[in-house]
Amino acid sequence: MRYLIEHQTRLSFADDVKEHQCEMRLKPIEDQLQRVHEAEIDVEPQAELFAYTDSFGNAVHHCSLVSPHKEIVLRLHADVETFLDNPFEYDPVPVAREQDWIRHSLRDVPRLWDYVVHHTDATPALQRIEHDLEIPGHAPNRPLIQSVQEAMAWIHGTFDYDPVVTHVHTSLEEVLELRAGVCQDFAHLLISVVRSWGFPARYVMGYQDAGYFKKDNENQEADAEAGDDENLPQATHAWAEVLIPGAGWRGFDATHNLLADSTFIRVAVGRDHHDAAPQRGSYKGDQEGSPPEVSLRVSCQQ
């Protein structure tokens, strides 16, 4: 699938601010499953952009605005092609060897431990927080991908999608109490469940093709209550990736109870949403800015 992406974020302030340091993770990931044919980022007021790759492999752009300003606009124009048509298409590792496969992966790439042992309020150790839920488990005599699918379906069936009950800094303990949240919360919960089994899991920020919900696929089921109205504004999306033996990283979208395929466009990954935020920064000024105004258009070209 090939997509054109137009993403704009506008930050406004009541009074002038200055010395604004702005960091952006807007350029989509490029690897064997996704190719970036073009990606242009610009800032208004005009500023020189510096690019680097962070420790998680994300493309990061940074700029400094020294002159006083009341508004900053960040724009991305990208042309991206995705290739994962069937997330189940790989050579599976025999169940009896899955644990060894994971152990060897952790030994060969020690940085993968970041996605096993990292815990914050967003992705806590579930046994250390209070809740009365029966968290799904993983039996070693069954494929990991099946256990993750069951955990994803459990989240989808247990928690309500409600965009007003949580915010970007809501803890997972609060989400468990509310039994509701948004894609960010459900991704964090699935990550926490999988890490409790001892397997690597990470957070993904990106986009999803709204036209996907028109598909009738026997392996995937869309949720009619979680944003499948094509007339609703498009927005960034979040899901989890789990290191599946034989397949590598595979995406699991607990919001819609879907495995990620070529209709999902990955932009940034990390241990949780803090590592993969599309925009963050700091500035000197007397007042907080207004909530960001985000406009997004993702158009499928084929």
* Tally of DSSP helical segments: 5
Class of secondary structure makeup: alpha+beta
Level-2 CATH architecture of the largest domain? Roll
Strand content: 35-45%
How many beta-strand runs?
14
Order of helices and strands: EEEEEHHHEHEHEEEEEEE
| CATH topology tier name of the largest domain | C8orf32 fold
- Reading off the top of the CATH hierarchy, the class of the largest domain is best stated as Alpha Beta
Question: What can be said about the biggest beta sheet?
Answer: 7 strands, antiparallel
Termini separation: 6 Å
Q: On the 0-100 scale, what is the average pLDDT?
A: 91
Would you identify the regions where 5 or more consecutive residues have pLDDT less than 50?
213-232
Any idea what the shape is? globular
Helix content: 10-25%
Rg calc:
20 Å
The overall number of domains is 2
What does this structure look like?
It is a single chain. The chain has 302 residues and is an alpha+beta fold. 18% of the residues lie in helices and 36% in strands. The strands form three sheets. Strands 1, 2, 3, 4, 5, 13 and 14 form a seven-stranded antiparallel sheet that branches. Helix 3 (144-158) packs across helix 5.
Descriptive labels:
302 residues, alpha+beta, Immunoglobulin-like, 2 domains, 7-stranded antiparallel β-sheet
Write the layout of secondary structure elements.
Blueprint: E1 2-24, E2 34-44, E3 50-53, E4 59-65, E5 69-82, H1 95-108, H2 114-117, H3 144-158, E6 160-161, H4 172-178, E7 180-181, H5 183-196, E8 201-208, E9 237-244, E10 248-253, E11 258-259, E12 264-270, E13 279-284, E14 293-300
Parallel strand pairs: 6-7
Antiparallel strand pairs: 1-4, 1-5, 1-13, 1-14, 2-5, 3-4, 8-9, 8-12, 9-10, 10-11
Helix pairs in contact: 3-5
